[in-house]
Model the fold of this input.
Amino acid sequence: MATVNGNNYGNIGATGDVSLVARGLWNSNILVQCDEYEASSTASGTVINVAYLPKGAKFLGGKIIHDALGTGVTLQVGDSGDDDRYLAAASAASAGTLNIEKIDGFQHEMTADTTIFLKTGGATAAGTIKTIIFYSL
Done:
């Protein structure tokens, strides 16, 4: 069986020089933003702003905890550059938790101060939506 190194581990290697790894990916602070929205006859296509990440932040993931929002209701998570960068439309018809962990969004670096939002789809939504967003600087 082989032993291999991840990219960042390999970059640091024997030198221990963490400056060889991009800011926010090694020995960085993980920050959290939480929000809540009460949907009440919220139309499909509604954008709900839930986090504000500063320039240079790296998106690490998150969760949406929600009530049963209605038959056919979906939620997706994105930003102004890609409205489903972090989570493609996923069913929120039954109460539950959605993990915000799309591969293309993980470790995405904000090139400017950026608003992260949910977007409803499929049908009119009603119920509580709570979010937690993790990022590093």
About this structure: The domain at 39-130 is CATH 2.60.290 (Hypothetical Protein Tm1070; Chain: A). The longest strand covers residues 30-42. DSSP finds one helix and eight strands in the chain. The beta strands are 30-42, 47-53, 58-66, 74-79, 82-91, 96-100, 114-121, 125-136.
